[in-house]
Amino acid sequence: MDFELSEDQKMLRKTARDFLANECTKAFVREMERDEKGYSPDLWQKMTDLGWMGLPFPEQCGGWGGSFLDLAVLMEEMGRACLPGPFMASVVLGGLTILEAGSDAQKQQCLTAIAGGDIFTLALTEPNGGYDAASIHTKATAHGDDFVMTGTKFYVPDAHVASHMLVLARTKEGAKADGLSLFLVDAKSHGIKCTQLKTIGSDKQCEVVFDNVKVPKANLVGKLHQGWPIVQKTLQLAAVAKCAEMVGAAQQVLEMTTAYAKDRIQFDKRIGTFQAVQHHCANMLIDIDGMRMLTYEAAWLLSAGLPADKEVAMAKAWVSDAIVRVAKLGHQVHGGVGY
Fold this sequence. Notes:
9 helices; 10 strands; elongated
């Protein structure tokens, strides 16, 4: 078995790591936590110029024609740098959904726009529930050449800076999964109200209210009443992309911690010479290797178009727990300064 990245992927990783080391400093990350937009348009343009926004999209849509596995490599480096901004919302939640289910015209228009720096997002969850089909109560009712949409979406990432949203709405009464449809909605449409929510992580999530918003029937993504399977596939891709980010973050924690353990003097010795500290670092490495293997196995299967339900679930379950263990051990080795 060959677990090596391709030469192109290694080059992408190096380019991304060098670029983000210069452009995404810790001070910048903290600044963006306080910034109303939550990202730097200047940095966003530089990333666009590098081709990152179009990495997984076809060349005819302004993209690189890369795979989801290539995207996972890039996402790991973004996680390593703790990059703030709407990349996940726009490229993964927005772009990959359209790539999966959009019409040829929608792909040409929207993917080209995303690759050029436009920001898209996915409006899915609602105030009353979770990620299941029965929780969707936003309605879209056919009226002439349009649908009229009414309802409220919660925790919509980066909706305050998005030009378009993909919105899941109920188009058939009395149904659950088989009565939901996905729509492409202009975020500046009359009747939309967007309010930023205060979050613990200082990320930019929004409440979006749709009050009789007109959506052209041509903006239906996929088939009528069949939006739920599209969203399920998007959630798989998003889960693995987020896992890749967490792998990068954990790797950075390990490298910071081992560097500190080699330099910090206590009891006239470098603390890295103490066996308990070595055990902590070893356990961090074990967790990170597991995180990386599960994440990249799931990413490879998704890239190849193979069934990956089990692998995605395993990666999501393990990585989200392991990143907490790694961070806690990193804090412990750093001591008070780690906080």
